Amino acid sequence: MDWEDGWKRLVTEGWANRDEPPSLLAYFEHLVSVHPNSGRARFELANVLDYLSREEEAVVVYREAINLGLSKEYEAYAKVQLASSLRNLGNADEAVRLLRDIVSRYPHHLSFVIFLALSLHSEGRSAEALQVLVQTILHECETPDLLRYRRSLTQYAAAIHDPRGNQTRDPSSLSIHPHSPQAPWPWDLLLLADPSRTRIQNYCRDGLCYVAQWHEEIVGVYVIALNTDGGAELMNIAVREDWQGQGLGQRLVQHAENTARNLGCLWLDVATGNSSLLQLRLYQRAGFRITDIVPDFFVLHYNQLIMENGIPCRDQIRLRKQLVADAP
């Protein structure tokens, strides 16, 4: 049995515990302890961390695996999976750079091209993502219908452009910076996340407001408030509707974490509604954990019933992410 067959056996044995996450993780952590200088062992551990939605940890271990050394095949897999985790964490620009390099070396791997297109879409470059996919299909697939229309489809693919005009949603053109005291509050965005203008005024007055700006447009916002107990709370976070689903929310959460950490905060809290399914997914994928549920919060503090996703918003769900190890 060669070394690759040995790894396949070890990996298959470990994934037999896929329905028991603690056992699954413990198996591959032990594998790393037995093979501390093996890039392959760390790659398999990173794979498990990804599976368990622990992308931040997975990113670190993927980088370690690549630095320790992998076969050409598994180096490509590691970089693709690293890029996918980075995209999920809101770092689509680095993901695109990694994937462009991999796709240039493995142009026939359609899954790699799809990961690149997804990362381009997360950067707001949806037209380019569509172009990459269409051109790859035309280059790599041979079917009678494609042969019939290849010339015209190739021309159409080359002509794909951003429907907003010449300005593409290039991440280098998007900045996140403190809101200027001289500028008006981005009420249209703030009210997307919190329908109470009075509450917004209160926490914006004492909090720190950051905006995501694309050229002259404000397309995202967040507000954090510092607490006296050593933590901070993310009071408001919103993304303009035409920018939603492109990774900007993840990027704003990550920026808020870094802001709080740089201010010496031990943790970051956030609260949302029981009906806010996308927000709950976003925060938990970013490493926040539910710490409390406040029944009827929105019934008691808001004048009108809030409906989201066909669900009455009644209870407040509170989540926390530790920014410093061993913080309370």
Give the key terms.
328 residues, alpha+beta, Serine Threonine Protein Phosphatase 5, Tetratricopeptide repeat, Aminopeptidase, seven-stranded mixed beta sheet, two-stranded antiparallel ribbon, 17% strand
How are the secondary structure elements laid out?
Blueprint: H1 3-15, H2 21-34, H3 39-51, H4 55-68, H5 72-88, H6 92-105, H7 110-122, H8 126-140, H9 144-158, E1 174-178, H10 187-193, H11 197-206, E2 208-214, E3 217-226, E4 232-239, H12 248-262, E5 267-273, H13 277-285, E6 289-294, H14 297-301, E7 306-308, E8 311-313, E9 316-322
Parallel strand pairs: 4-5
Antiparallel strand pairs: 1-2, 2-3, 3-4, 5-9, 6-9, 7-8
Residue share in helices? 40-55%
Largest sheet: 7 strands, mixed
Structural class: alpha+beta
Q: Please report the distance between the alpha carbons of the first and last residues.
A: 50 Å
Order of helices and strands: HHHHHHHHHEHHEEEHEHEHEEE
How many helix segments? Answer: 14
